[in-house]
Amino acid sequence: MWVRWVNAIYIKTAGWWNYQPKADSGWYWRKICSVKEKLKSLFSEAELDQMPKYSIQKVYQKLVQQHEKVPWGSAVWNRASIPKTRVICWLMVQGRLQTRERLHKIGVCNTTTCLLCEAKDETRPHLFFDCEYSRRCLQGVEEWLDIPTSKVHYMGLLRWVKWKSQCSKFQKTAIHTAVNATVYNLWRARNDALWNQKVPTPSTTIRCIQRSVIDRLAHIGAKQSSTNDQIWWKSKCTV
Ligand SMILES: [Zn+2]
Fold first, then answer.
1. pLDDT per residue as tens digits for the range 76-120
2. How many Å lie between the centroid of ligand 1 and the Cα of residue 190?
3. Which end of the chain has fewer CB atoms at under 10 Å, N or C?
């Protein structure tokens, strides 16, 4: 009934495939038409005609394929990490954390000085991990987990974990959890400086990261499948 009504009122003699809604059409109708335009970028008219029944699964699979795989996806969204650390890390890689540089650009903040070192501008690359404070925290975590302390850039660190390290699956999980926790705790330290005028020492932040990773992996029951992993992790839990 609705389809017949739509044909009579809107489409009339025009073909649905090339139909464009009028500017004064209702919002819901324009929305339906915009979904149709999106489908056109995924399927040809013939492909859709051949579909005996509209399949949500097929359309979803095609949509997913269209998204390029991001090199940080599995690290940021690794399930072992505490959810709030995943979100902050995701915002960080997207460049969407509200750093002072961003706030200054939109006229919300009248200074761009880094709250942690008070020496440079607070930009994303500075906070993660060019800042003297961040660098010391990251290197503390790297030393703890046997990561070369020359890995001072986020993507370089992820590449090392994926391609160069000889880490086991468990070790990679622990490292990704720790890197997410590092980003989260640096952002928290920065916010502490902003709202409470207190900057924790780098060693306090490092201990906080270590504790959160140890507790989290114990909480979710992350398995060390080899004796090597067990020995390795036991040595890390004594901090
Ligand atoms: Zn700084």
1. 999 999 999 999 999 999 999 999 999 999 998 999 999 999 999
2. 9
3. N
Give 122 Cα–ligand 1 centroid separation in angstroms.
6
Tokens of 147: 């990561």
Distance, CA of 181 to CA of 217 (rounded, Å): 12
Nearest-angstrom CA–CA distance, 105 and 188 = 22
**Ligand 1 centroid – CA 228 distance (Å):** 38
Cα 166 to averaged position of ligand 1 atoms, centre (Å): 32
- Two structure tokens written together for 31: 């929305």
Q: Which residues contact 121 (CB under 8 A, 6 or more apart)?
A: 100, 101, 112, 113, 114
Classify burial at 152, counting beta carbons within 10 Å of its beta carbon; exposed 0-12, middle 13-18, buried 19 or more.
Answer: middle
Q: How far is the CA of 41 from the centre of ligand 1 (A)?
A: 45
pTM, entire model: 0.75
Answer yes or no: are the C-beta atoms of 115 and 122 closer than 8 Å. Answer: yes
Residue range 205-232, pLDDT digits in tens: 999 999 999 999 999 999 898 999 999 9
Instruction: With residue 159 as reference, give the H or E element that holds it.
Output: helix 154-159
Dist CA 133 CA 223 (whole Å): 33
Spatial separation of the C-alpha atoms in residues 27 and 18, rounded to whole Å = 19
**Angle between helix 202-220 and helix 227-236 axes, rounded to 10 deg:** 140
**Contact indicator for 215, 224 with CB cutoff of 8 Å:** no
Give 71 Cα–ligand 1 centroid separation in angstroms: 26
Phi, psi of 135 (to 5 degrees): -60, -40
